[in-house]
Design a protein that fits this description.
The protein is of the alpha+beta class. It contains twelve helices and twelve strands. Strands 3-2-12-11-10 form a five-stranded antiparallel beta sheet. The protein has a three-stranded antiparallel beta sheet with strand order 1-6-7, with helices on one face. A two-stranded antiparallel ribbon has the order 4-5.
Length: 368
């Protein structure tokens, strides 16, 4: 069994330590969330609050017939991106690939029409100009990962790399392609061995044999048992690095806690050295133009992470990193407050109001 020891901890200030010492401060947050589910705002919701030590408190609420608990597995959707990005940055940290190294060095087919300029930095900041794969086609035709990658590589760029922000999930296959070319192992195996096992995480592209309840997502056409079976089988095969992981509250809390304060496992700093984590959390795009949430705006984005406090009137420091998923998931990490906030629901493109209320309530609970 791997023994995990913590790296040095920063001096205390007004942080989530207050919630660890006085967990009753969170009573109102969880009570309001339970009430929102009872009132029908969401069919199911689960919330975990943690700090750099790990979990402080979690609970799950549901109005559905099948029980949901804190160990239930939720579809993480695009929260997969920062997890895969973190694993990829381990290779950057090891000096095996450059953040600004052209991907054509690993995949010669990515050339012509400006594609040879695309780097891992462009992929993780969504500034590559590469064409995304239509999500509706995924459901209808269920293309393989290789087919998605080939279509993306062969399609013309939408714009010159680095000049604009445009969300692109398919491009994350290029990160996993590099992982496989460098390590000689499948990217799922690399993710498990280098990131998940050291942190005790169990996120998976194939939740069918996990032995836990898989919470069905509503509003995306998978309400029947047969459809869910077919979709889960496809998701396991495609292992979508831009949005295919499933996991639990505990999984994301462990991940977030280690990003706030990295662990030392068998002599290696996991998931990354503090300076690399800080680099990922910096505003890399500095307000490039792009369409975000359906609006043309100046976008701020890190490496695999969004920078919500730079774009909206939301709580938290400028160092917050966050990512959401269309299935209603959210991972929010405030390194200055040493706060980890994990929110799940199971309604596709759900209104984020309940999530925002829980987040605001958590910050209110942090006030001395």
């Amino acid at each position: 069994m791997t023994v995990v020891s913590d790296s040095p901890r920063a001096a205390d200030s007004v942080t989530a330590d207050l919630l660890r010492r006085e967990p009753a401060r969170l009573d109102g947050v969880f009570e309001r969330l339970a009430r929102r589910v009872r009132d029908g705002a969401l069919p199911t919701a689960a919330l975990a609050i943690g700090d750099d030590e790990g979990l402080i408190r979690m609970a799950a609420f549901s109005s559905e017939r099948r029980p949901v608990d804190v160990d239930s597995i939720f579809f993480l959707a695009s929260v997969t991106k920062p997890i895969v990005s973190t694993a990829f940055m381990q290779l950057v940290e090891d000096g095996l690939v450059g953040l600004h190294q052209p991907i054509v060095d690993f995949e010669p087919a990515l050339s012509g029409g400006g594609r040879e300029k695309v780097t891992p930095w462009h992929v993780m900041t969504h500034t590559s100009g590469l064409a995304d794969f239509d999500p509706s086609v995924l459901g209808r035709k269920r293309p393989s990962g290789a087919q998605i990658t080939r279509t993306m590589i062969e399609s013309p760029l939408h714009f010159e790399p680095g000049t604009r922000w445009e969300y692109c999930s398919a491009s994350f296959y290029l990160l996993t392609l590099i992982i496989e070319r460098i390590t000689g192992m499948g990217y799922v195996q690399f993710l498990d061995s280098r990131l998940q096992a050291p942190l005790g995480m169990h996120t998976t592209f194939d939740p069918r044999r996990a032995g836990r309840r898989i919470v069905a997502v509503h509003g995306v056409g998978v309400d029947s048992w047969l459809t869910r079976f077919i979709v889960l089988r496809y998701m396991a095969r495609a292992a979508l690095p831009g949005g295919g992981l499933f996991g639990t509250l505990d999984d994301l809390t462990r991940f977030g806690a280690a990003l706030v304060r990295p662990r030392v496992v068998d002599g290696r700093t996991v998931p990354l050295k503090p300076e690399t984590i800080s680099l990922m959390g910096e505003d890399q795009t500095h307000g490039l133009p792009g369409v975000d949430d359906g609006e043309e705006r100046w976008v701020h984005h890190g490496l695999g992470w969004g920078k919500p406090t730079l774009m909206r009137d939301v709580p938290g420091s400028a160092n917050v990193i966050s990512h959401g998923g269309a299935s209603g998931t959210r991972l929010w990490i405030d390194p200055d407050a040493r706060l980890v906030f994990v929110f799940f629901t199971n309604r596709w493109s759900a209104d984020r109001g309940v999530e925002a209320e829980a987040l605001l309530g958590t910050y209110e609970a942090l006030r001395p």
